[in-house]
Amino acid sequence: MARELQDVLHYFLPAPAAVAANTSPPPANLVSVPFAPHDVVRLALLWNLAVEAARQGARVALLVPGPGRCSPWLRPGAGPLGLEILEVEAGELSDLARAADGAAARLASRPGGRSLVLVAVPVAWLRADGAGCTLLDRVLLLTRPEERELLETWTALGAISEQAPRARIGVSLFGVASLAEARRAFEGLAALTELELARPLASYGVLIDDVHLSRSIVSQRPIPLSQPSTPAARALTDVASMLLDDARDAMEPKA
Fold first, then answer.
1. φ and ψ of 221, to 5 deg
2. Which helix (H) or strand (E) covers residue 221, if one does?
3. Phi and psi angles of residue 26, each rounded to the nearest 5 degrees, phi first
4. Cα dihedral: 204, 208, 212, 217 (round 10)
């Protein structure tokens, strides 16, 4: 009989040290998305998310570390719908953080509504000394429901928790066979995070990486613009909306 993720995950990796739960909201318009070397799919999903957020009317910047750490088709410069793609010469988290803070300030100075800075962070840098780094205040982990991927996500969760105890961490599943599979994977990971790290894990839904994602990479045309009626485009709409709603809620004055 299959067991829930939280029942078996501790057999593979030691639990990271427990940390205090988040008690204060981090800046909502700066979101880091970890990726591994040559991780074309996650970078493509991140690019498509950035375009979708711009399509929804936000001012958006996408920061990638360079040179040569990201896919060659993710070129710096002006992207669709006013999206800014910035390649940053960075060797550690603090380099990316300075560039991200500058991009956030620049977007905030422009007239308009919500702004969002998405930052591609090499997953290996999560284990470096990044304590106090604003890049880890808010992190979106993109993961598949397979055991190996979930174990890697659990490792990333522990590293982020050690560096940034007050971080808001969210997860979006991709590469799923069904919504039920995605729900089981997230609920298992969330339960283990609550148990071992004493912190909540936010759900950012499901991203569908169907054939349209491959086509968007080959054609270098984002799904929200080239295939707006597909399930993949609708999934991007949902996830981008959740990210932008966070930014809106953070901007609203508290009663």
1. -120, 125
2. none
3. -80, 170
4. 60
List CB contacts of 178: < 8 A, sequence separation 6 or more: none
pLDDT at 120 over 90: yes
Sheet holding 168-174, edge to edge: 77-78, 84-89, 59-66, 115-122, 30-35, 138-143, 168-174, 202-207
Name the residue type at position 155: T
Listed in sequence order, the DSSP H helices in 109-230 are 147-163, 179-197, 211-219, 223-226
On the question of pLDDT at 254 being above 80, the answer is no
Q: Match 């919504």 to its residue by tokens.
A: 179
pLDDT tens digit sequence for 142-195: 999 999 999 999 999 999 988 888 889 999 999 888 889 999 999 999 999 999
Tokens of 61: 């910047």
Residue 94, number of CB atoms within 10 A of its CB: 17
Q: Residue 21: what pLDDT?
A: 47
Cβ neighbours, 10 Å, residue 157 = 24
Distances from the Cα of 188 to the Cαs of 18, 168, 181, 192, in angstroms?
Answer: 18, 18, 11, 6
